[in-house]
Amino acid sequence: MHPSDRAVLQETRRQFFARGARGLGAAALATAIGDDLRASPSLNAPIGGLPGLPHFAPKAKRAIYMHMVGAPPQLDLYDYKPGMKDWYDKDLPESIRRGQRLTTMTSGQSRFPIAPSVFKFAQHGKSGAWISELLPHTSKMVDDIAILRSLHTEAINHEPAITFIQTGNMLSGKPCVGAWMAYGLGSMNQDLPTFVVLNATHTHPKANVQAISAKFWSAGYLSAQYAGVTLRAGGDPVLYISNPDGMPPQIRRRMLDGLSELNQIEHEKLADPETMVRIAQYEMAFRMQSSVPELTDISKETESTYNMYGPEARKGGTFANSCLMARRLVERGVRFVQIYHRGWDVHGNLPEVLPSQCKDVDQGCWALVQDLKQRGMLDDTLVIWGGEFGRTIYSQGKLTATDYGRDHHPRCFSLWMAGGGVKPGIVHGETDEFSYNITQDPVHVRDFQATILRLFGIDHERFTYKYQGLDQKLTGVEKATIVKAIMA
Amino acid sequence: MGVAGIFLGFAYLTLPLTAQQAAPRVDFQREVRPILSDACFHCHGPDKETRMAGLRLDTRDGAFSSRKNGTPITPGKLGESLLYQRITEEKVARRMPPASSHKTLTDKQKDTLKRWIEGGADWKEHWAFITPVRPVPPSVKSAQWARTPLDQFLLAKIENAGLTPAAPAGKRTLIRRVSLDLTGLPPSPEQVDEFLADKSTDAYEKLVDRLLASPQYGEHRARYWLDAARYADTHGLHVDNYREMWPYRDWVIGAFNRNVPFDRFTIEQVAGDLLPSKTLEQQIASGFHRCQVSTNEGGSIEKEVEAAYAKDRVDTTGTVFLGMTIGCATCHDHKFDPILQKDFYAMAAFFRNTTQAAMDGNIPDTPPQVVVPKMQDRPRWLELNAEVASLNNNLAAARKAPNATFDRWIESKERKALRSPLDTSSELLAVSVDKTAHLSRGRSTKNLALKSGVTVGESEKRQSLRFAAKSAISLPTLDQITADKPFSIATLVYLPKGEGNFTVASQLSRVKVDPPEVTKEGEVRKEILRGWTLEINARTPLLRLLGDNGRGIQIRSSSARRLKPGAWVQLTFTYDGSREQAGLGLYVDGATILTEGRGDPITHLPGTLTTKQPLVLGGDGNERYFADGAIADLRIFNRVITEEESRLAGVWPELAASRAKAASQLTAEQKEALRLYFLNGKDSSYRALVAQTNKANAERREIRNRGAVTLVMAEKPDTKPMANILYRGQYDQEREAVEPNSPSALPAMKDSLPRNRLGLAQWLVDPANPLVARVAVNRFWQEVFGTGIVRTAEDFGSQGEAPSHPELLDWLAVEFRESGWDVKKLFRLMVTSAAYRQESVSTDEKVKKDPDNRLLARGPRFRMDAEMIRDYALSASGLLAPAIGGPSVKPYQPDGLWETVAMQGSNTRYYKQDTGEKLYRRSLYTFWKRSAPPASMDIFNAPTRESCTVRRERTDTPLQALVTLNDPQFVEAARSLADRAMASVHDKVDAQFDFLSARLLARPLDPREREITRKAYKDYLNYYDSHPSDATKLLAVGESKPNPKLPVAEFAALTVVTNQLLNLDEVLNK
Fold first, then answer.
1. How far is A188 from chain B (nearest CA, A)?
2. ipTM of the complex as predicted
C-alpha cells in the first residue's frame, strides 16, 4: 500500500466511523484495507464521537427512552388527587384555570366539569409513591425509579409537542436527543446502528392513535447518519438487510469479494480515497447482515426472562417484545434506543381505553428495569418513560360517573426515569390539587433534556453544533436548568 | 459528503486554500470576517438586545471609531487596537471572547487578526451584500489550457496551489459524465458509439446541445429544484393525507425544458398568481409556496399555524433566492447578519394576506386551487371558459330585456296552472310550503303532518318549515334513489347563524356492529350506514352517498366559499348514476361552484344505496339535526338537472306564490321568477342559449374530471399585506405592525414596485440585488461540480463559508444575469469548460492539498444522489418507463413503512404498490409521503421535504449498500439487464459481459476486470447449476417476468454478475 494511501485510510476509517457511527467494524475494515491498520489505539475507544466528550465522568452510557405517543393522563396514573372526588362534575375554578389557553377541541365547551380519576391509587415501596391500580408492575418498582410530576411544556398539540420533547424545538428540522447522542458520543459497537427506534403495537381497538414520523428520530441538521434506524418487527428487521431469495450468504460473500477486487482496480486507476470507503462500506453491510439476525433471534432467551416480560414478549412488535429487544440492543452496544407506543390520546372513553394501554406497557417496563438490574446494566443505562404533555382534570365531552375524556394539558405532566445516575425511589415536583398548575419544582422540557445530557456527562451549554451560523444546542437558546434533585 | 467530508475540518484548520502560499496579505472577507463573525458578533453585532458595551464590530463605524477606553481597531497599530489587546489579554477575566461565550480564538486566528491589523486593516462590507461586477479573468501561465473564462479563474488558483490540471478525460468518460449531469441518465451504447464516431472538433459541443434539448434535461434539473421547493405529495403533518401538487412538479420540469429565463422562473413561482392576465401555467407555478407542510390537527390554534406558515415561506424564500438565513431573525435581530427582526416580519407580511385557511382540511385540493386540464385540453378549456362567461352574460341580458310575449303570457291563465318548476314527470318528490307544508309525490299532494318542534312560519321573509333543536320530521321512504340511476336534490334552506354542523335531509339505514369492528383502515365502527345525507358542515354544503359496507362518495363545496350564515341559500346536488365521485355535481344559488375533495380515497359507490328507511327532513334520524334552520322548498328529481334548472327550482316559492295573483299584483321577485320560467319554457332563443350553455358546461365538466386540481397562491382582495412583529417569535405576542418590505440591508424596493408578492418577486430579480444571481449560479455549480463555490449554498451570510473563488462567482453571476438569466447557457458554459472535461484521476498531492476538489485540478466525481442511482439502474437495464409527468407513482417499497407511523383514517396509511409501467418511472415521480419518505431514497440522503433543502448530504453508510444489493428494484434491474444480454448474445459469456459493461460503464472491461468477472461468473454458475431452485427464486424477483427460454443457471449467474457490476463504485459515482 502506498504510504499516502495509508494516511488517507487512517483518516478515512476514523472519519468513516465518525460519520457512520453505524458501527461495523474494525475487522471488516481490516479485511478490506489490510491488517496492518488493525492496531490503531482508537479502536478500543468509542467509535466516532466528538473529542472532549463527555465533559464529565458519565453516569449513563446508554439510554432506553419509551415515549407514550398521545400523552398519558397523569391524573389517572402518577399524580394522585384524592380531593377531586368531592369536585365531581363541578366546574374547574377560574382561579385555577387563570384564563390559560385551551385547545380548540375544548375551548368551545360551555363547562369544564371536573372528572376525578375512576381508578384507585395506593402507596408503594419505601418511597411511598402513590400509583394507580392500572400499573401493578410499575408499582412494584417505585424504589427503582424517580417519578417526576412537574414536567411542563409550551406545546399544546401532539405533533409540535413530541417534536419539542424529542428535539428541543416545536418546529421540525432539529436533531432528536438520540441523534445528538450518536453524534456526540459515537458508537459502542461495530455491527449495529448507534441509535435504534422501535415502534410497538397497541391493543385496544378504540385507542385514539396519533401519527408519528421519522422527523421524531431524525438527525435534523446533523449528518443523516446519526438518525435513528428503525428495527422492524415484520419483514426485514433492518430495511433491505436480507439477500434476495435464491442468493445464499456464500454467493453474496463471493460477489462482494469480486466487487471489492474490481473496486481496487478502480482505485488504482483514479486514486480516489472514496473508493476505499466504498469497499469498507460494503464489508460493513455484510457484517450487519450477519449480526442483525443474531440480534433479532430471541429464541435463546430463557424461560425466566419470558416469565418476567410476559408471554406477549414472544410476539414480535408488542411493547413487551420491544422492551426485550431494547435490552438486547443495549447489551450489544447500541447507544440509544427509542420505543414508541401509540394510542394514549384519551379525549374520550378514557376509563375503557386506558386500562388496556397500561396493560400493554406496564409489565414490559418493569421487566426491562429488573432485567437490566439483574445484568448489572441499570447503573449505566438510563431508562425513561413518558409522553409529550399532560391532560386536563376537566372532562372533554360528556362526563358521567363511569365515562370521561381528557384534553391536552401542557402545564404539567408526569414521567419517570431510572438507572443511569438517576436517584431511585423519589418523587419530584408537585402540582396543585387539580393537577393543573405546578406548585413545586417545575421541570421544563429543556431542563429534562439538559438533565439527560448531564447524566451522560455532557454540559448542554457546551454541546453545540454550528448550523445556520449559530451554535445550536439540544436545549435551544432559552435557559435550561439541570434537575440535580433527581441525580444520584 | 464522502471523503470530502473526511478532510473538511482538517483542511480548513490547517490548510486554507490560500494560506499556504507565501503572500502574507490577509484576505478580510475570507479570513478575517469569519473570525469576527463567529467569535465577536454575537455580543458585538447586529442584535441590539444582546449587544455588550454598546460596541459593534460588524460595521466599519463600530470597529474603527474611538471610544472612551480606546479604539477597537487602529490600522497598522496593534498597540492602539483594543480588539487585539483584549483577545491577547493575559488576565482570563478580561480576555475576549469571554469564557461564558464558550468561544475561544486559536493562536492561528489571533495571528490572522494581528497580521490583518498590521497590514492596514482593510475593511469591506460583507462580500455577499456588494452587487457583483464582472471581474476580468486573471492571467495564467498555461493560458492554452483554458477553454472558457471559467477556466482562467480556476487555473489561477490551481497554479497558485502549485498543482497542474489533470489530463482531458476520454470520450467515454466524458459522455457518461455529461449525460448524467444534463439528463440524470447514463448514455445508451448507441449514443456512446455515435459520439465516438463523431470525429469533428465540436463533437462534444454537439453532444451537449443534444442533451440540453432532451426532455430528460428538464426532469433532471427539476429534481434538484423540488428539494428547494420542498415538494411532496402529502400535507406533511398529522394525518398527512394526499395532496394534489404534482401539476406544480410538472410545471418545473416544463419550465427547465422551455428554458424559462431564471428571472421569469422566479417571478412566476413567487407571484405567478398576481401577474396581470395570468395564465394557468403561471398560477400553477405559484404552487411553489403551496408546497409547504400544512396541518389539520384538531385543537391547533389557527394563529399559531398561520405564523408558522408565514415563517416557512420567509425561510424558504430567504434560502432559495437570497441564500440568507432570514429565519434567524424570527425571535430577535440576526446575530451575525444585518437582518433585523423587523426585516423578518416585513418579509413575512408578503405572505400573510393569503386566502389559504390555517387548516388544510385533510383534503387533496385545499383552496386556493385551480383546475388543471390535461395539456391537450387546455386550449379548449380556455375557449369554453370564455364561451360560458359570454353565454352567461347573454342569458342575464335576455332575462332583463323587454319581452312583449312575456308581457302577454303573464296575463294568461296558463301561468296560473304551474305545478312544478321543472317537468313534473321527473319530479319524484316535492316539499313546498305556503301557509302549510305540502308533500307531493307524482300527482298526489297532501299536507305534511308536523311533529313537535317543527313548525311552519316565516323565517327571514320566507314561509318555511322551521326546525327547533332536536326536531325532525319523517316522510315515507323514497325507494327510487338507487346507485345506478341519476337523481338530483334541489332545496332552498335557511342556514342558521354560527358555525355548526347540520343535517338538512337524509335517508339512512343503520346496522349496529356489536362488538365494534375495527376496519383495515383502523376505524372503529359501531354502526354501518347506508343511504344518503345532505349536510351543511361549518358552512359548507355536502352530499354523501353511502352504499355497501358504509362506503361511498361525496361532494362538498370548497371551504374557500363558505355559505353566509343567517341567510337563505338554494342548494342543488346532482348525481348521474355512475357510482363515481366525478358523477356528483353541486350548484349554489343557481351557479356551479368550486367543490373540493377530488381524488379522495372514497371514489366509488359500491353495492346499493337503497334503503327502506324514511326520508328525514331536519336531521339524520339519530343524533344530528338542523336546529334553528328552515326549509322553504325541497325537490328530488329522477335525472341530472342543469345549472339553469337549479336556478328555476330555486324560484319555486315565488312561482307558487304568484299563481293566485293577478299580474298587476305581482312583486318584482315574482315577476322575475315568472320571467325565468317563461324564458325557459317558451322562449326558443333563450332555450337555445341555455342548451348551448349546458353543452359547454358539460364539456367543461368532462375536461375538469379528466384533469387535475392543484394548490396555488391567492391574495385576499380586500385587505393589504401586513404583519405584526411577534415578540420572541410567539404567535400570541403581537407587537408593532409592519408593512411588507425587503430586508433593510439589501438594496431597497423601488417605489414603483407593488407592495405585495409580485413586488417582492420583481425586487428579487432586480439587477441591483447582489444575491439572487450568485445564489442561483452557485447551486447550479454545485449540481455539476459537487460543491458550490460557496460551500454553504444555503447561507451566504457572515457565518456561511466564504467563496472558494469569489471572482469566478461574481463573473458567473453577472454573466448569468446579462445572458438574460439563461439557464441552459450556463450549464453549457460549465460543462464545456476545460475544468469539467478533465479526468477525475487524483494524485497524492491533490488529495492532500485539495481533498474536496474545490480547486478542480481534477474532474468532478462524487457519489450520485438517490434518484440518479435508481434511475441509472432502471435506464441501463432497459426497464425505465419514459413517460414524463402526471400523478406520482408507488414503486417497490418494503411492507409496513407507512402504517407503522400513520394515523387511523389517513389516506396514506397503507402503501398500495403500483404495477406495470408505474414501477419503472423516473424517481422524481415516486410518491413522496413526508412522514415516511421513500425508504431507499431516504437512506441515500434524500430529504423529507418538510422544509426547503438546497444542499443534500452525501454520506456513505452500510444501509446504502444494502439498498443497491438487495432492494427488489435493483435486483430486478440486474436480472432484466442480464436477460437482455443473454437474449442478444447467445452462448458467449464474454460478449454478454461486454453487453453489460457498455450499459453500466459506457466502456468495455479491461483484461483484469474481465478475468475477475469470468471467475466470479464461473463460481456463481457452479452454485446455480447444483441449486436450480435457488436460481429460479432469484430470477423471480420483481414484477416483470424473466425470459422462460433462458437456461436458469446461466441466467442466475449472469444476474449475480450484473448485481455485482451495478454496485461498482464506478457505477455509483458520476
1. 17
2. 0.85
